[in-house]
Write a structure and sequence with these properties.
With about 210 residues, the chain is mainly alpha-helical. The chain has 2 domains: about 60 residues, Homeodomain-like (Arc Repressor Mutant, subunit A), CATH 1.10.10; about 130 residues, Orthogonal Bundle (Tetracycline Repressor, domain 2), CATH 1.10.357. About 65% of the residues lie in helices and about 0% in strands. The chain contains 12 helices and no strands. It is globular.
């Protein structure tokens, strides 16, 4: 019996959710988010489309695997003696680094539902990180909600609107230089400090009994 094309191309058992997710990331970063299909990922892996369905249920599951790959690239574990403010800065910095490294894939993580796997376990870990850094669980949940909303909104717009040669050519002579600071990471860091200061004020006000 002549071996099938799929068997010739890829050894049996060499696929996994991890390898599929890594291939999907490569496809997105090279060709854009709209290119993420089972067929394109199968082509990237030199296998048949049906092989993917041995590890995935559908296209939503494929996107979830990509989100999991992005989460795995964030090293956010509690650090002994770290304040919640510094833990927040570390979270925001790590998130920004991820957006810079995977600008086309980042949106899948940023816009994923917090109650969905693999996002939910990651959010639980981030709550635990803030609690370990000194916040109550209630305050940690408030802080994470604000941090996530700020970082996701800022960074999604930043990566969607990063300058290209075509956009620079279309801009008026002074326009690109003038607007280059919009959604720049320097502005992101300023916003991070504003977020932290606002949370500090809220938490201190609650402890002192002032109505917030």
């Amino acid at each position: 019996m002549i071996a099938s094309q799929e068997t010739q191309r890829r050894p049996r058992g060499s696929l996994s959710r991890q390898s599929i997710g890594a291939a999907a990331l490569r496809v997105i970063e090279r060709d854009g988010l709209d290119s993420l299909t089972m067929r394109r990922v199968a082509s990237e892996l030199s296998c048949g489309v049906m092989s993917l369905y041995s590890h995935l249920t559908d296209a939503d599951d494929l996107r979830g695997v990509v989100v999991g790959q992005l989460i795995d690239r964030m090293d956010l574990r509690p650090c002994e003696g770290e304040s919640w403010q510094d833990a927040t800065r570390r979270m925001l910095s790590t998130y920004a680094d991820l957006a810079a490294s995977f600008p086309r894939s980042f949106e899948l993580l940023a816009l994923a539902g917090a109650d969905q796997r693999p996002v939910a376990p990651n959010m639980e870990r981030l709550v635990d990180l803030l609690v370990a850094a000194g916040l109550t669980e209630e305050d940690a949940l408030i802080a994470l909600s604000v941090i996530d909303a700020y970082a996701s909104g800022f960074l999604v717009i930043a990566v969607r609107n990063r300058p290209t040669a075509a956009s620079v050519e279309r801009a008026a002579p002074h326009q690109h230089d003038r607007l280059a600071r919009l959604h720049h990471l320097d502005s992101y860091d300023v916003g991070a400090e504003v977020v932290i200061a606002g949370l500090e004020q809220r938490f201190e006000g609650r402890r002192s009994g002032r109505k917030q």
